[in-house]
Design brief:
Blueprint: H1 2-11, H2 19-39, H3 41-52, H4 57-65, H5 79-91, H6 94-99, H7 132-145
Helix pairs in contact: 3-4
Length: 146
């Protein structure tokens, strides 16, 4: 919806923009917006707190403008890492962790990859193939009957 509104705005621009120019401006705006959010993580956190409390647009603007630590700098170390750990510990419950795949994320090293010369393949995992599921089901049924 937001992109369609932006396209309507570009279509009403005085020097008419062709499709390629619109796409380039949209890409530039998205990239610039993301880079500004990364540079100003403190303001982003202040905004997120107001939005979690269902604040109005005025409250959101006020939170950004009155943020005391705009860049999120801290003496405790890497603010982005601290922030991710806090969000992960607060926001993910047992059901989300179970349904979304446990602790696998960008911060956890994947131990299923073979490293070194000729590496890059995945380590072999146990897989039921062929008649194996039938035998496994028969063994489970036998265990319940005995």
């Amino acid at each position: 919806a937001d992109l369609s509104q932006l396209r309507q705005l570009f279509n009403s621009a005085e020097p008419e923009l062709d499709e390629r120019a619109m796409e380039n401006r949209i890409r530039y705006a998205l990239g610039y917006g993301i880079s500004q959010l990364r540079r100003h993580l403190g303001a982003l956190d202040a905004l997120a707190e107001v939005m979690e409390d269902d604040g109005s647009v005025t409250d959101c603007v006020l939170a950004i403008e009155c943020c005391e630590n705009v860049s999120g700098s801290t003496l405790l170390g890497d603010y982005e890492r601290i922030r991710r750990d806090r969000i992960r510990s607060e926001g993910v419950g047992l059901i989300e962790r179970t349904l979304l795949g446990g602790g696998k994320n960008a911060d956890v090293e994947d131990d299923g990859v073979i490293y070194g010369k000729g590496g890059g393949d995945r380590k072999k995992k146990f897989v039921l193939t062929g008649d194996d599921p039938l035998y496994a089901a028969a063994a489970a049924a036998l265990a319940f009957f005995v």
